[in-house]
Design goal:
There is one protein chain. This protein has one domain: Protocatechuate 4,5-dioxygenase, Chain B (3-Layer(aba) Sandwich), CATH 3.40.830. The protein has twelve helices and ten strands. The strands form three sheets. Strands 5-2-6-1-10-7 form a six-stranded mixed beta sheet, sandwiched between helices. A hairpin with a 3-residue loop joins strand 8 and strand 9. Helix 1 packs across helix 4 and helix 5 runs parallel beside helix 12. Belongs to the DODA-type extradiol aromatic ring-opening dioxygenase family.
Length: 268
Amino acid sequence: MARMPTLFVSHGAPTFAIEPHLAGPLLRRLGEQLPRPRAILVFSPHWMTSDVRVTTTASPDTIHDFGGFPAELYRIQYPAPGAPDVAARALEMLRADGWSASADEHRGLDHGAWVPVRHLFPGADVPVLQVSMPRTLDAEGAVRLGRTLAPLADEGVLILGSGSITHNLYEFRQDIGAAGGAYANEFVDWARDAVRRHDEKALVHYLDIAPHAQRAHPTPDHYLPLPFAFGAATAGAPVQVIDGGMTYGVLAMDAYVFGALPQGAAPA
C-alpha cells in the first residue's frame, strides 16, 4: 500500500460549512485526487484534554460546538462512521512512544473535524476518528505527536491537522477588513516558505521567528495542527500549497499537502 499524504487544512470559521468561498471547492477537488483512505485521523483544536485521547466511537455524532450562527449550520449532519480499529492502533503507538493516552468511547466529531472533512469527502463514506490536543502541548510536542502517529499513513490512514493558518478571533469579530489584515498575509507568506523549506526549527519557534506571529495566533491552539501535520509527514516529502484565500480580512484558508499525489493528479 502506498503511503498516504498528510494534510494541514485551515477550517476557518464554522460558516465554512455553508460558505465555501475559494477553499471549499479546492478541498473537494483534493479529496477526488487523493487515494481513498482507510480512515481519516483528525487532530483539531476544538477537543482539548489533559492527556491524549482517541475516539473509539463506532458512529460518531456531529457536534455543533459553536453559538450564534445561522440555523442552517446546526441542521448539518456528517454521518461518517468511526474507526475503532484504527483508534486501537493509534493508542498502541501513542503508549509505546511514552504518551499518556486513553480511549473515548462517546466523543463525536467537532466542527474542526467534520467541516473540512465534509468538503474533502462530501459522501461521509470514509471512517473518521479524532485525536485530542493536550492542553500543555507546544509546537515541539505537536511535531513529536505527529511523528508518533506517522506510521498510520503507511497503513492507509489520512492524517489531517485541522487548524487555521491565521486565527485572531478578536479581529474576526471586529470585521477589520482586508486593509487591516495585511499582517495576516505576511504570516501566510512566512508559513508557506517555512513548509516548502521543511524548516522544522522555524515551525517550532514561530513565535520568535515569524512576522506578526503573536497577532496571527494570540493562542497557539489553531497553529499546532500545522507542526503536527509536518511531523506526521515523511521527512523531505514534496509540499503542495493550496491557496484558499483570505476570509473576513484576517482568516487565511491555506491548506498544505505533504507527500506526492497519485501520478496524473493535477495540482489543486
